[in-house]
């Protein structure tokens, strides 16, 4: 039987809770392949146990796997450490070392949750957009960078190759979807954005069917809230994509619903876009759906589309029947725990496949 080796990286805070629910779902879903899991340390817990937010063994385990399923990292406990020891450095180094340059963050609307979003129903109904965020360059990684006593600086830099690589991913995706690509930048101020515009415009000549537009990031952050339906695929650089994707999660009702794939030439990593939520860690209150959807994206990426669909359908049905985790239930006391949500999704999977 076909077997995939999956590196599990639960990380910190709610990481273990949400990964456990994803495992429950992956275990229960009918499949004609095997998943072989191996767990690795990353983030704050890796700092505590191995004095390194990305131990060598974890990096090698990730490199030798078919895919990585990631929870979340970070927490106040480690905030005062020097940069290289912070949990976030572990994730950033992992992304860079794996070369996973294309971060894919879909925003979809569940009709059952139209009331969970603070935005009006008529604005968010039928929204279906994907943010393609460049993940391993830009200001996150640019040199020189430094924090001195009275001055600090970072560098935003992009090469033509880096832009072409991510833009190709976005054009190809737009071509398979609704054929609209909006490149979000700050070309009225930043040289990097000006180069992005040149490169992306040139590439558009090879994609006759894709309608390309450009939008300044300040305007885009407003348009996402005022008229999100105008977007199909949004292409943007690392920092803008980080910010816009948190903003876009408001459209779907909760950041606990947004999954992501980070894709490179050889390997891919799947993670919820939310963080480690230390305030609710260990209380069985987290929403596991973003992680379960990330697991489903992982199966799709591995070519197991049918199995991925079963998971997505079960999530649809559970939400349609009105079940909500705390983040979605607003002030109501009527919500289910993290593990209950996982159990329900498993139950629906079993029912669907009788
Ligand atoms: C994300 C997160 C990370 C990022 C942090 C944890 C380093 O916010 O994946 O969006 O900034 O990329
Ligand atoms: Mg972020």
Commentary on this structure:
This protein has twelve helices and twelve strands. The chain has 354 residues and is an alpha/beta fold. The chain folds into two domains: 207 residues, Isopropylmalate Dehydrogenase (3-Layer(aba) Sandwich), CATH 3.40.718.10; 135 residues, Isopropylmalate Dehydrogenase (3-Layer(aba) Sandwich). The mean pLDDT is 97. The site of 3-isopropylmalic acid (IPM) has 7 residues, from α4.
In the CATH scheme, what's the topology name of the largest domain? Isopropylmalate Dehydrogenase
- What is the number of helical segments per DSSP (H or I, 4+ residues)? 12
How many strands, what sense, and barrel or not for the largest sheet? 10 strands, mixed
Query: Could you state the order of secondary-structure elements as H and E?
Result: EHEHHEHEHEEEHEHEHEHEEHHH
Calculate the mean pLDDT score and round it: 97
Number of domains: 2
Helix content: 40-55%
Q: How many DSSP-defined strands?
A: 12
- Output the structural class: alpha/beta
Specify the CATH homologous superfamily of the largest domain: Isopropylmalate Dehydrogenase
Rg estimate, integer Å: 20 Å
Largest sheet: spatial strand order: 2-1-3-12-11-4-5-10-8-9
- Outline the low-pLDDT stretches: none
User: What is the level 1 CATH name of the largest domain?
Assistant: Alpha Beta
Portion in beta strands: 15-25%
What distance separates the N and C termini? 23 Å
Shape: globular
Question: What CATH architecture label of the largest domain applies?
Answer: 3-Layer(aba) Sandwich
Which ions, cofactors or small ligands are bound in this entry? 3-isopropylmalic acid, magnesium ion
């Amino acid at each position: 039987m076909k077997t995939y080796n999956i590196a599990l990286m639960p990380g910190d805070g709610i990481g273990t809770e949400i990964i456990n629910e994803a495992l429950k779902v992956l275990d229960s879903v009918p499949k004609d392949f095997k998943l072989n899991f191996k767990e690795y340390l990353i983030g704050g817990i890796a700092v505590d146990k191995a004095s390194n937010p990305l131990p060598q063994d974890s990096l090698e385990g990730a490199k030798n796997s078919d895919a990585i399923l990631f929870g979340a990292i970070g927490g106040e406990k480690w905030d005062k450490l020097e940069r290289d020891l912070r949990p976030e450095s572990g994730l950033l180094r992992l992304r860079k070392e794996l070369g996973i340059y294309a971060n894919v963050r879909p925003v979809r609307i569940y009709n059952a949750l139209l009331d969970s979003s603070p935005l009006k129903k008529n604005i968010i109904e039928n929204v279906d957009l994907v943010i393609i965020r460049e993940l391993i360059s830009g200001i996150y990684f640019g040199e020189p960078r430094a924090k001195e006593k009275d001055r600090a600086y970072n560098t935003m830099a992009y090469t033509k190759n880096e832009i072409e690589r991510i833009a190709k991913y976005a054009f190809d995706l737009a071509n398979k979807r609704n054929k609209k690509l909006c490149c979000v930048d700050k070309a009225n101020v930043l040289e990097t954005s000006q180069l992005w515009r040149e490169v992306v415009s040139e590439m558009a000549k090879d994609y006759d069917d894709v309608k390309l537009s450009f939008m300044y990031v300040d305007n885009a952050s407003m348009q996402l809230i005022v008229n999100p339906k105008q977007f199909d695929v949004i292409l943007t650089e690392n920092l803008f994509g980080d910010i816009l994707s948190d903003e876009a999660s408001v459209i779907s009702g909760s950041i606990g619903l947004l999954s992501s794939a980070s894709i490179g030439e050889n390997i891919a990593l799947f993670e919820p876009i939310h963080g480690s939520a230390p305030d609710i860690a260990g209380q069985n209150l987290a929403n596991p759906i973003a992680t379960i959807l990330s697991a489903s994206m992982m199966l799709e990426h591995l070519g197991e589309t049918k199995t991925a669909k079963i998971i997505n359908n079960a999530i649809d049905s559970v939400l349609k029947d009105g079940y909500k985790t705390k983040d979605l239930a607003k002030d109501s006391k009527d919500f289910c725990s993290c593990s209950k949500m996982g159990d329900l999704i498993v139950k629906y999977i079993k029912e669907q496949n009788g």
